[in-house]
Amino acid sequence: MKKMNFHIVKREPMVWYKAVLVRAIAIIASLLVSAVVIMMLTSKNPIQIYSSMISGAFGSSLRIWSLFQNVAILLCIALALTPAFKMKFWNCGGEGQVLVSGLATTAVMMFLGDALPYPVLIIVMLAASVLAGIIWAVIPAIFKAKWNTNETLFTLMMNYVAIQLVAFFLKYFVKSGSGILTPMPEHGLPVLFGQSYLLNIIIVAVFTVLVYVYLKKTKHGYEISVVGESENTAKYIGINVPKVVIRTLVVSGALCGIAGLLLVGGTNHTISTTTVDGRGFTAIMVSWLAKFNPIYMVMTSFLIVFLQKGAGQVSTDFRLPSAISDIVTGIILFFIIGCEFFLQYKILSTKNRKEND
Amino acid sequence: MLAFLVSSIRLGMAFLFGSVGETITEKSGHLNLGIPGVMCVGASCGCFAEYLYLSKAGVNANYFLAVFIPIVATLFGGAVMGFIFSFLTVTLRANQNVTGLALTTFGVGVSDYMIAETGSIYSKGSRFFTTSLPFADDLGVVGEILFSHGILIYLAIIIALATAFVLSKTRIGLNLRAVGENPATADAAGINVSRYRYASTCIGCAIAGLGGLSFIMDYLNGNWEYCIDAIGWLAIALVIFTVWKPGLAIIGSIIFGALYIASSYITGVSFASKEIFKMLPYVVTIIVLVFTSIRDKKENQPPQSLGLPYFREER
Lengths: 357, 315
Description:
The complex is a heterodimer.
Chain A: E1 6-10, H1 16-42, H2 46-58, H3 61-86, H4 94-112, H5 118-147, H6 151-173, H7 198-217, H8 219-229, H9 231-236, H10 241-268, H11 279-289, H12 294-317, H13 324-344, E2 345-349, H14 350-356
Antiparallel strand pairs in A: 1-2
Helix pairs in contact in A: 1-13, 2-12, 3-7, 3-8, 3-10, 3-11, 3-12, 4-5, 4-6, 4-10, 4-11, 5-6, 5-10, 7-8, 8-10, 11-12, 12-13
Chain B: H1 2-27, H2 35-57, H3 63-91, H4 96-118, H5 123-130, H6 140-146, H7 151-169, H8 171-181, H9 183-188, H10 193-219, H11 229-241, H12 246-265, H13 273-295
Helix pairs in contact in B: 1-7, 1-10, 1-11, 1-12, 2-3, 2-4, 2-10, 2-11, 3-4, 3-10, 5-10, 7-8, 7-10, 7-12, 11-12, 11-13, 12-13
């Protein structure tokens, strides 16, 4: 084999401004590449493209509200998944967990909406969606804890069971047979100060702090990180691993339940198979890119939503298919994922090392 | 009934390509959740190449080139996606789940773009892929089931059998499995772990890409109207369903195909219950996953280091 003339070592944690710089370079590089891609498709100059992106995200107060609303929902799902990820339990089932909770919320709104007084209805909606989220998350957790069933694959499959369940519900209960449920804003969550998204944003902000405290300052959080670092260590110091796994997924599922409630009860007031719209998967990236830190997640989810909104605007302005936003998001994600390497490792040439020795 | 079986086979082969590709990848310890995206990109490349060739060749298009060019383009597109995945996960040491999902986002975007820009203009090219063997009509029912298919169907079965052979009977297969089970041991035995992971991922993705091409050109007869990512997820499910055995996957894929379309062939099923039927492949996969993990039989387990990174310095 050819002798390699360099090697890779793990570096000390980088000073924060250098870390920011590396990430900024990655994002700029990715924006350049995506601008080149868009230019090839449209032959417009990149300045026009970027200004269109910015106007898509911040162009009007409606757009800003919608930006923050989307950040809130994505952040909420990412927060939900994070405790599981920190435990190295790859919960890829956010999509399904949010969707069934949304389904539960919808069902309550539909069948009990007129029967219950409004405050009771809200409580029942909350209970139903949280319960549904917990059930969907805890089934894979039980099998993981008892028989070490692969959780990534299990939770992935649960997503599609959830999607089909929603499809069934829509065909069975929508009387017109169109498969589209008319929104029921009269049974939705309360609207604060006339801003329909404000409540969502406040709730998610509160949960961001709560999850941060839960992971960093409580005994549960500590147990989660020990199990995540090394299951053997956890067993050795007397942590009941199956119990921690199941308990963490109850937390994870409950938070997904909240996301489902906000999405259906607080935003759409209806459900379809695409209500969650891939956020369950995007949230995985949000959480990972933020190194599972809830505060950083605010930034990563903001970045991703900004890119999606911006690219969406580019496609409207230049009459491109909306799919362009997925392509751009994909390219940018490749760069951000790749740049993490340079934050954690450095490449030394073997020659240098000899001189140093 | 006959039509049902033939359709199941035609659909099943799209799953088969995907799952054989993913099996090869997973045997090296890479859990590539980007397969749906890989299939989308593979299909996009193949369809576009077919379109270019046919518009250039016009009426003079010959069968061999009309089939060969898209297949090569698809293999290339898939392999590029596999290369991106391995570059990020092996060389830049990124997390496999995250990278795979980014790959899916990208691939779905590419194929949606293709659909929006070109739409279903591929039925002309599809003709070449659905041309059956010349003697199929003379053999009655047997001919209908066994010989009436297009070239990709046979290619899928050949690739699956070849993969099964390579994995279980050759040194390369043994090394690959060693890398997936315990990369540290494989490394100590002198196997180049990174090279095996790169190669298996690129080859696996190239094959998986053919699944996308097969689904559009053969099963849909070139009428590409919706995103095919669901096929990719089912292909990943099929890997589990057939416990990482490409030989079994041939039968498994036909069963999946049958489950997927059963609702359209059974009379007296309500509009709504059809959705429950479509849930079956996933539920069956979950049951198999749970059942194999409870039985804990050695040969039916996922590769031991599936989804785990391997960096020599971090042992």
